[in-house]
Amino acid sequence: MTDTAASTPITIALSKGRIFDETLPLLAAAGIVPQGDPETSRELIIATNRPDVRVVIVRATDAPTYVQYGAADLGVAGKDVLIEHGGAGLYQPLDLKIACCRMMVAAPEDFDYAQAVHQGARLKVATKYVRTAREHFAAKGVHVDLIKLYGSMELAPLAGLADAIVDLVSTGGTLRANRLVAVEEIMPISSRLIVNQASLKLKRERLSPILEAFSRAVRR
Ligand code: ATP
Ligand code: MG
Q: What is the pTM of this model?
């Protein structure tokens, strides 16, 4: 198929911080070098060395939405974010193996989580990841009242809002600092390449080499 959308740029949605930083080497492998740094610039649209490729800086949770609606052709999003989004309208061709961490259940050191589960207690669980948490506890047959938070989940048990939390853990330092312990792993998390389904057809000639370069760079 010819590139009927040849005149429109290729737009890549990235969040600043670890995803932007860890995607840079993959972009470089595809010959794409952003010309700005989102940490030091307030510009939300960053040009690249290629006149037909640009990067838009979005909140991590918004990357799937930009790609779903075609405002971005490509993006990078954590599996955690993709599960909560649902994945409608997205191809997820590649696990980029970046921004790796684990989705965990954590509770105060002095809370006997295993015993509570064993006794069939109804647990109050605070989390940003409501869908992930709901599916996890439903599969275990554990009854939970889920409390949606938007950040600082570690505070919830300390303040008496919840018995436990579901959150991302990498080193465990934040949990330790708040006298919490990880009591159960829900799943390992890494970031994926996401592609708008229509873009893949309309811009295939320009997108395929980028996807292939990413794929080769990940396998190295
Ligand atoms: P913000 O920190 O701006 O509130 P956010 O937490 O959604 O937003 P990031 O902290 O940039 O965004 O996280 C982006 C992605 O990186 C997450 O969706 C997750 O997949 C992954 N991630 C989050 N925390 C960690 C961590 N501690 N270690 C490794 N990867 C992580
Ligand atoms: Mg964060």
A: 0.95
